[in-house]
Design brief:
Structural class: alpha+beta
CATH superfamily of the largest domain: Bira Bifunctional Protein, Domain 2
Number of strands: 10
CATH topology of the largest domain: BirA Bifunctional Protein, domain 2
CATH class of the largest domain: Alpha Beta
Order of helices and strands: HHHHHEEHHEEHEEHEEEHEHHH
Bound molecules: 3,4-dihydroxyphenylalanine
Amino acid sequence: MISQQKIEELQAALQELKAAREQELEELRIQWLGKKGEITRLFEEFRTVSPEQKREFGQRLNQLKTAAQNRINELREALDQIAGGGKASFDLTKPGDRMDLGARHPISITREEILSIFRKFGYSVAEGPEIEDDWHVFSALNFPPEHPARDMQDTFFVSPGGENPILLRTHTSSVQVRTMERQQPPIRVVCPGRVFRNEAISARAHCIFHQVEGLYIDKNVSFADLKQAILLFAREMFGPETQIRMRPSYFPFTEPSAEVDVSCNICHGKGCNICKGTGWLEILGCGMVDPNVLRANGIDPEVYSGFAFGMGIERIAMLKWQVKDLRHYFENDLRFLREFETVI
Ligand code: DAH
């Protein structure tokens, strides 16, 4: 039966209401405000109240109803906050999402392998800037102005004008120059890095790729030393049976210059489609440092001599793993990258 006491009791009980889940809250709403709920029932009983008491009971009942609505709203807001604005509800007892382990990129793996071989031979690692000037990329390496060899490499210019244009280095040979500026012989460095050439992207060429440059300068360094260093490197990289051959070539910064081939590690010289039937695969360019380069960098060619070499990391990695398309290295397709997950 409706009474002041009953209304007060309900009012107090409202403050005690709790809901930990959406469903519980809905049950409370039905229990209090639903068609068959407590408050609706009191409103029905209100009809039996004597006319003198109607005014007071009416006010009280309305207050109770508003208080119940407010309380339910409060509980709803609290629940929404826990569930992140009500959009998603988290179940903290569920297991977490699996995180895939990362793996090293084949270019990083190959770079490290090349460097670690040369570290064993006593070389240290030197690096230089990717944005360079004409002096370090061309002039100090014996490319005269207007020399056609400058056209061999399509250069990206950052600021083409002036005495010493700024450009993206086209080879890591620029780090030779930076090393000679800093240091007198003996010099024994390998210089890994990214290089840039304005080439159309295809299976065999890219406008961004990676090289390792090598430089060795001391007294009495000979072509035989160069040949031995390259042979030992090739055997460490491609296996102890590997043979090398040198073909005469031309680079402005070395004289004489050579290109080096290794015996094909697929067919062992018999001829296959990787080596195009020749039994040989080209891996690098090299030569004896031109006396003009030594002179331009403050080293006396009467006292010192040296050799240099340069190789493309992508090319070495392609030969090592028979990757047929250079673009795989840049596309970050996980199906390709996962092939190298287990290579340490
Ligand atoms: N810089 C040459 C290139 O990018 C590679 C190279 C060839 C480097 C012969 C050398 C070298 O040090 O002696 O094609």
